[in-house]
Amino acid sequence: MPQFLRNAWYCVAWLQELGEEPFGLQVLGEHVAVYRDSCGEWHALDGRCPHRFASLAQGRVIGDALMCPYHGLQFGPDGRCVLNPVDPEGQAPDVVIRHYPVRIRNGGVWIWMGDPALADEASLPPESAAFQPGYAAALLYFKVNANYQLVIDNLLDLTHAAFLHGETLAAAGDVPKHDFSMQGNVIHSDYRIEQGGVMPIAATLFDDDLCETLATMRWRPASNLDLDVRLHPLEGSNAQPLHMPSVHYLTPESENVTHYFAAIARNRKLDDPAEQKRMHDMALKAFTQEDEPMVNTCQSMMGTADLMAMKPVILKTDVAAVQARRVIAKLVKRELREEAA
């Protein structure tokens, strides 16, 4: 069975893209149903009704409870069955399904998949500039047909951008200098191009053809990353600096499928619908037509979700990805040890 870090926050939706209806997805191989009660509070329950295992995400919200669409059993925010409408006395069975802590952060809905008593708001991703006043963010969601750690590898080693994203996220041929550091379990993977071309996605936002590019990537367990990209004018230029913060939240659906929630923002042309669409479409192309097929192919060629079992060649620029894998392995091992105690 795949081993995931359970005591961690995982993004399950962009808040602004949700309606009033419940929704469901698989997280860490488990079905989850998420709904908003009559007071506007969000809740997450086991996605399967324990009676005949119908999908609770296809049910309806009744007050503060979620009603199964099959036989009408209703479950409260704590997972307890509160009503059996087909019982002559309305007597609910004595059953409690799993419930998950829910929080809102950076425009996303987050759930804690582990022990609810250990849910720690301090371990949510930090507030991102991408969602602050003075920035306009394009939101994306898609699935990657690969293990989530391969997607983390891809994001922590941005040297691939010069070869894979020459039409979208990088100026073709501009290979950056790399710097790595760790602060506790937080991985810092930073890149610098002292003088290079302007990445295509920023071409309509920056006034010169050349710039200095700084890209700082941060990874936090289990699978949440934020990227801060800054374009600075070269000496003698009158161009204005450009700031493009982004977030990349990865939620494993299963061993070989990953939910990918991304937001990429800018601090220029905030109220320009054409620019918003251009940025969204170009980022979507980079992620779904360039990154996803490549990572998917790597997964298929490997034939396993265990990269290290393949004894891969390790490059100097792999240090961030390797360290992230070690942190995940350490935390999962500790979690399993504590569960067994």
From TrEMBL:
This protein's species is Novosphingobium album
Q: Where is the Rieske domain?
A: 9-111
Q: At the top level of its lineage, which domain of life is listed?
A: Bacteria
Task: Tell me which UniProt keywords the record has, alphabetically.
Answer: 2Fe-2S, Dioxygenase, Iron, Iron-sulfur, Metal-binding, Oxidoreductase
Q: What is this protein called?
A: Aromatic ring-hydroxylating dioxygenase subunit alpha
GO MF entry, a single one: dioxygenase activity
Q: Show the PROSITE patterns listed in the entry.
A: RIESKE
Q: What sections of the sequence does the record tag as coiled-coil?
A: none
